[in-house]
Amino acid sequence: MNYLQIKDISKTFEEKRVLNHINLQVQKDEFLTLLGPSGCGKTTLLRILGGFEQADAGQIIFENKDISHQAPYERPMNTVFQQYALFPHLNVYNNIAFGLKLKKMKAQEIKERVSKILELVNLVGYETRTIQGLSGGQQQRVSIARALVNEPKVLLLDEPLAALDLNLRKRMQLELKNMQQQVGITFIYVTHDQEEALTMSDKIVVLNEGEIQQIGSPVDIYNEPKNSFVANFVGQSNILKGIMVKDFLVKINGIDLICVDKNFAKNERVQVVIRPEDVEISKDKGPFEGRVLSTVFKGIHYEMVLEIMGKEWLSQSTRPWPVGEEVRVFIDPENIHVMKEESHA
Ligand SMILES: Nc1ncnc2c1ncn2[C@@H]1O[C@H](COP(=O)(O)OP(=O)(O)OP(=O)(O)O)[C@@H](O)[C@H]1O
Ligand SMILES: [Mg+2]
To answer: Are residues 8 and 136 in the same domain?
Structure first.
């Protein structure tokens, strides 16, 4: 059954089409991420879902009911905004309890719910702290607690970790994912950080300029990008021109390569995506001859730019190769990803 359906949503601001016919199915308990560059329409779509913005066309269907015209508080959703929007004059407890008091819930029940949530977000003992007395990461937990305490069916999160430094962000990514699994709530998570999306999501929706580019699992999106936008936005890629000679055989720069792709027209022009970590350099193995143009240490690996038949290829390896070295390059058939050629590419 469809849990949450986004049906043909479009939105224009000042004659600029910000969302163009967005169609999306969200399953119960799914961690779904909207991923795309700044300005692609992520926040707008989330605001339309939350009821803070009206779409020009289209519907939001939740459990087979059209909720497109419900007010935010009537929807089975809560939002965690990028700016945490906590009440500075209230302490941690009262920030979290605020919505429940508004609903006139009994004091005892509020207390029980808030303590349960404080445990979940790891803030037991912080009840009477002021908001100013909290670190960024702690404030962020309060804002998540404040949304979760209402027990929404769907939690909307707009770049909730963007303000945190890298280490804390990485830790919170895992914590959030654990929380989501514990509480069994559907998360719709907005980010422009591809690594964050790959780490946390069950399903990723890649957006660009108000249009869905690809929907898939992190592994699918990374390994089988549908077009060059996705290939470049989700990780770095080498995108090369090729000719699909026949099933399982692609030609790049006149060199035949065995691949795992099929069902293209005979001799169809294609684009071939090769991830930098799959460009294997050696002294004598592989069909491509090249030269190392640069080598940079990146922490876990070295990043090398190679010149191969007049083109620059990016390669990542734990082993550095000296600049100027003549090398050969091998690519495993499994790591060659063939895409249809795009007319505008
Ligand atoms: N209220 C508004 N009035 C006019 N234009 C708007 C309004 N809200 C958003 N826009 C425009 O719509 C486009 C999409 O904005 P949106 O905030 O959805 O992008 P985003 O993907 O969330 O970007 P970011 O990653 O920077 O947060 C942008 O060009 C933005 O300037
Ligand atoms: Mg935004």
So the answer is: yes
